[in-house]
Amino acid sequence: MEFDLPSLNNKDRYKLLTSTIIPRPIALVSTIDEDGTLNCAPYSFFNAFSEDPPVCVLGIQRRPDLKPKDTSRLIRDGGEFVVNLVDMRIAEGMNISAIDFDPEIDEFDLAGFTPVASRKVAPPRIGEAPVAFECRRTVTLQLSAERDLVVGEILHMHAREGLIDPETLYLDRDQYDVVGRLYADLYAPLRDVFQLKRWEPDDYLAAHGLDAAGRPIDNDKT
Ligand SMILES: Cc1cc2nc3c(=O)[nH]c(=O)nc-3n(C[C@H](O)[C@H](O)[C@H](O)COP(=O)(O)O)c2cc1C
């Protein structure tokens, strides 16, 4: 089966992309307006794209009337945002924060989130989140009338106590109940982890009986 993406409508494209590119991490994005009203909402068109500089990207859809969502408007106006990651503990609150409330409603309050002052940016982070990244907007790319891509530089990272070993910087996965988004109303925790060894080229060839050109070594040859 094949799909010619440009000829599909947005709904069908969305369905195909979001049901197959899974699980997607969820950025629960906190922002603040000039009056100090707090806003937060989840975005699963999200990932990290570089560590030098440390960069993350959000894909933000416009509303049906083509006005920007609050997150997009507040990032454009204030230039700063916090990406809070979502674990099982705050999944319900994340879902409440996705409700399309009027901008004057404090979504932190309704979702049961504690705003904690950030170190380098104006919007607070969510105290209950396992990990939070303080970000400054690098650029917003308007890809179409309906779609903004926000590129942000990560300035500061917070991790819940006990999550990351301060010496090795390894994550304690048993403490990290992070949630990924599947499609529609479905989510998945991290389970059934397995390892795939990353090979060096020479190790791989030797372990598989291949010569430098990737051809089987003929051991019977004298
Ligand atoms: C798990 C989840 C992921 C979402 N991901 C996105 C996304 O990537 N892009 C988007 O435009 N909306 C996304 N939404 C919808 C927004 O969260 C929703 O429109 C929200 O009301 C926007 O709030 P805001 O106006 O405060 O920014 C998502 C909703 C949920 C529940």
Description:
This protein has 5 helices and 12 strands. The chain has 222 residues and is an alpha+beta fold. It has one domain: Roll (Pnp Oxidase, Chain A). The chain has a 7-stranded antiparallel beta sheet, sandwiched between helices. Strands 1-11-12 form a 3-stranded antiparallel beta sheet, with no helix packed on it. The site of flavin mononucleotide has 17 residues, from β3, β5 and α2.
Q: Tally of extended strands?
A: 12
CATH architecture name: Roll
Strand content: 25-35%
Say which CATH homologous superfamily is assigned: Electron Transport, Fmn-binding Protein, Chain A
| Alpha carbon gyration radius | 22 Å
Q: Tell me the major beta sheet.
A: 7 strands, antiparallel
Distance between the termini: 50 Å
Question: What topology emerges from the helices and strands here?
Answer:
Layout: H1 10-20, E1 24-25, E2 27-32, E3 38-43, E4 46-51, E5 54-61, H2 70-78, E6 80-85, H3 88-97, H4 107-111, E7 115-116, E8 125-126, E9 131-144, E10 147-159, E11 179-181, E12 187-189, H5 201-207
Antiparallel strand pairs: 1-11, 2-3, 2-6, 4-5, 5-10, 6-9, 7-8, 9-10, 11-12
Bound molecules: flavin mononucleotide.
